[in-house]
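Annual report, structural modelling task.

Input specification for the 6-O-phosphono-beta-D-glucopyranose complex:
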Amino acid sequence: QPVGPFDLVVFGATGDLAQRKVLPALYRRFRAGQISESAQIIGAARAQMDAPAFRAQVAGGIAAHVPADQQDADSLARFLGRVFFCPIDASSDRGWKALVTRIRPAVGHVYYFSVGPELFGDLARQLYAHGIADPACRIVVEKPFGHDLASARQLNATLARHFEERQIFRIDHYLGKETVQNLMAVRFGNMLFEPLWKAQYVDHIQITVAESGGVAGRGDYYDRAGAMRDMVQNHMMQLLCLIAMEPPHCFDADALRDEKLKVIRALEPVQPGDIVRGQYTAGERPGYAEDAAVGNSDTESFIALKVKISNWRWKGTPFYLRTGKRLKARSSEVAITFRDPPHSIFGKQPGQRSNVLVIRLQPNEGIKLKVTVKEPGPGGMRLVEVPLDMSFARALGSAHVLPDAYERLIMDLLRGDQTLFMRGDEVEAAWAWTDPVIAAWQDGPAPDLYAPGSAGPEAAMELMRRDRRRWREIK
Ligand code: BG6
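The model returned the following structure:
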């Protein structure tokens, strides 16, 4: 069923994110029949261009970012027929009258702030001043939502001046990923796992988000952020929350977000010795400083940390998080290692390993459970570990093309469902935990160097070794 008629204004419409993610996602949902032919998608940006020029740009973005078998000329022409453009300046009155005229009073209004956070305040004010910030409208903001707790609080306060929390949709695109939502389906849709999902049965949990790409082209932003602000404060924190939270009483926005918030609040401060920061060196391709186009920089492109949660469920079970650029492979997974059986009736058996449940987030999305079985043959009771391996693509068939995270989130936004968006207090709590971690290394040593294509700095291996554990291989 298509969502009801709406006018969606994308501010920053000529920018990279809008062209690469937002507009292609809208096209795909339009083609799938979920967006009605009467919708208006209005690009707004400082650029002085007309609608045909903007449509040409949008078509270029779609051609480049939507798989060829998911585009066709007919739907593209119909989609572009619903696309308009208003040159606009967030900090002056230029262009606003034209936008007000274009917006239809009787349909839903969504304002997508695909711009830097420094413009959020101006946009909110202008929408209000021009009378188009009606109580039913929604606004969408992208990460980074602030740079620290103080700036995030300020942004929340700025938005709260003109909008209620129910109108504000803060995107963390990891929540739109199918397999991230699958974390919840696996936990709460099966009886098998949840009873064991606690410190008593879980030895430790590893969350890895490894990337093979570097920071070229984004150095200006990245060098001010680093891996901690770019990935841990948001995406990895969300993964951690979904794994660690108590079962919400229903799958509803506030029920879910209340439980996530409790996890963030229960995080212990990270000890300086439990953090490893790294920066990639040059190999066949340039190293971090050249990629980021900065001189000397102490910004981390890799981080590994041991995180503890102070509550009944998790006391005594550490979570190890690592993420980095220019690593061996693009590979993200959550691995839950269970404790050994309390007593082995088979004596010492080299083939017996701990059970591990691996949820692969990308690529090759799927679930793998390592179990111990008897080695076949007459050689007596010899144990061996085998994987129960389920690839979603194989098990569910190709009819289930995994939609891009933005498609899911944009449809939820158009339907007004905030479940997969972050609430203001959640973002602030995440910064409240992140800020002291960052402050603690300010006067500390520079990040450890690591070779491109490796698994990160040696010190990250040591972080595990000293706890008699090992990172899983990145592959
Ligand atoms: C973004 C970060 O939020 O997420 C990038 O700013 C990172 O640095 C990206 O590369 C990773 O997203 P994905 O969907 O490719 O895993």
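The mean pLDDT is 94.
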